[in-house]
Input
Amino acid sequence: MKNKLSILVFFVSIFVFAGCENQNDLSGNWQIDSLIQDGVYQQIAVSDISFLMEDNQFFVAGNSGVNRFNGIVKVQGNKIIIENLASTRMMGSEEEMEYENLFLQTLTGVSTFKIKDNKLKIINADKKLELNFFRKN
Output
């Protein structure tokens, strides 16, 4: 009986840990899938975000639609705080700039994130904004 229980615990552990593999690994390149404001899908521009770990510090960089951006990321559990967010200052169409503004607003303040099945969701609840990405290879 004890032997069967040990085998069961072993297989359950493998299943649980295999399912959790890289679930909180922000590192890498992500491509935009959707931007949602207050439950409404917004026009999608070509946007991406990359997270890089260097010297135990996360950095972020990407394209917010028209401009490039970068900053320093602090991860606290499932929360991210992006500090020193800097962006280039090119102008696009009114629609592109509105989208970009929403994109960058999602990243400011405290946001939560979830990673599942190589999909990243960043939510800024205060501003009712959500960004959804898929992992690029």
User: Anything to note?
Assistant: The radius of gyration is 18 Å. Helices lie at 2-20, 94-107. The longest strand covers residues 28-37. The CA atoms of residues 7 and 13 lie 10 Å apart.
